[in-house]
Specification:
Layout (H helix, E strand, L loop, with lengths): L6 E6 L8 E5 L2 E7 L5 E5 L13 E3 L2 E3 L6 E3 L4 E3 L14 E2 L1 E4 L2 E5 L23 E9 L3 H9 L4 H4 L7 H5 L3 E4 L6 E11 L2 H7 L4 E11 L3 E9 L15 E13 L2 E10 L6 H31 L12 H19 L1
Antiparallel strand pairs: 1-11, 2-3, 3-4, 4-9, 5-6, 6-7, 7-8, 10-11, 12-18, 13-14, 14-15, 15-16, 16-17, 17-18
Helix pairs in contact: 1-6
The protein binds FE2/S2 (inorganic) cluster (FES) and fe (ii) ion.
The site of fe (ii) ion (FE2) has 6 residues, from helix 5.
Length: about 350
């Protein structure tokens, strides 16, 4: 079941222009585009007239013209013209979803109630600024949203699935701390690895060699937003008591988890770093590495889903490393239960 009354990442900002993009989000077909003035718009991808996908229409100025018989809609979804007649039935309007373009991501509110703008995740790192450089991408996975949550909340898999890039032995063996914020539903998982091997992902970009302190602090805001605070620093140099941490390298690793159907999910990813700012070569390296990492997850989740589809029951044995994933499952279950009561 989908948690409708929430914000989800719908697209990378760079994906949208005046040629509409069709994307299935929470089971609904959505047409995303920019008007000629650059405004981002999301419509139900179904013309009220005969159901033709509006994503196959054309943007003309601030309007979208259906590609079948020419019904024309303004950016709010109001039908403003029908060829051959002046009268426009009220039911000719199309559903327009609230959208917010925030830096490199475009967010969509899929709920039927008022959009809760206060609940939009804050992503200042992903908005153009002088302190962080970003790279980003998106992958579609043929697996359920829940399998992706499990994957992201238990990073011990890095050691085995991502051995050549970000996985080192200590990721799997270092104990984690898990916290759930009952107010906000945030699930936090802390893994502080001290005096450990620096994986290629970080040694190549930070220049640190040999042992480092490597911290991974996950902050998951269910259902759709995940932020991993990664800190790489020379050994035994923690942040100062006032919070300053200038001797460390920081990377924020973002995932927008957007269910497409019950068995497919969009994995929007982004990396923001506070070092090697604006260096193209580092951008290209990180983008290539992260694409590879994401593809390894995609391949693993695709096969897990296909095996799950073969079985009637999935049996599992949970162990210590699963505490973050289990906490997220509990939070999601209670959000789903609350949603069914509404
Ligand atoms: S289906 Fe869109 S105008 Fe006819
Ligand atoms: Fe992974």
């Amino acid at each position: 079941m989908y948690l409708l009354e929430n914000w989800y990442v719908a697209a990378l900002s760079v994906e949208l222009d005046t040629k509409p993009l069709s994307r299935q989000i929470l089971g609904e077909h959505v047409a995303l585009f920019r008007s000629e003035s650059g405004r981002v718009v999301a419509f139900a991808d179904q013309c009220p007239h005969r159901g033709y996908p509006l994503s196959l229409g054309s943007v003309v100025g601030e309007e979208l013209v259906c590609g079948y018989h020419g019904f024309t809609f303004d950016c709010g979804g109001v039908c403003v013209a029908i060829p051959g007649q002046d009268r426009i039935p009220g039911r000719a309007n199309v559903r327009s979803y609230p959208v917010v373009e925030q830096g490199i991501w475009v967010w969509i509110w899929m709920g039927h109630g008022e959009a809760d703008y206060g609940a939009l995740p804050a992503t200042p790192w992903l908005v153009a600024n002088d302190e962080w450089s970003t790279v980003s991408g998106v992958a579609k996975i043929s697996a359920s949203f829940d399998l992706l949550v499990d994957n992201l909340l238990d990073l011990s898999h890095e050691t085995y699935l991502h051995g050549g890039s970000i996985g080192t032995p200590e990721v799997a063996t270092t104990p984690i701390e898990v916290e759930v914020d009952d107010e906000t539903n945030a699930v936090r998982v802390f893994r502080h690895m001290n005096a450990v091997e620096c994986p290629p992902f970080y040694s190549r970009t930070t220049g640190l060699q040999g042992k480092v302190d490597r911290w991974q602090d996950i902050d998951y805001s269910p259902p759709g937003f995940y932020l991993l605070h990664a800190r790489i620093a020379p050994v035994a140099q923690p942040p100062l008591p006032d919070g300053r941490d200038d001797h460390a390298f920081h990377m924020k690793i973002f995932y927008g988890l957007t269910p497409s159907t019950e068995t497919s999910v969009y994995d929007f990813w982004a990396l923001a770093r506070d070092f090697c700012l604006g260096e193209d070569e580092i951008d290209r390296f990180l983008e290539k590495m992260q694409r590879g990492v994401v593809q390894e997850d995609v391949d693993a989740l695709n096969i897990l889903q296909s095996r799950a589809d073969d079985r009637r029951e999935v049996s599992e044995v949970s162990v210590k490393i699963d505490r973050g994933g289990l906490a997220a499952r509990r939070v999601l279950a209670s959000m789903r239960e609350a949603a069914t009561r509404r």
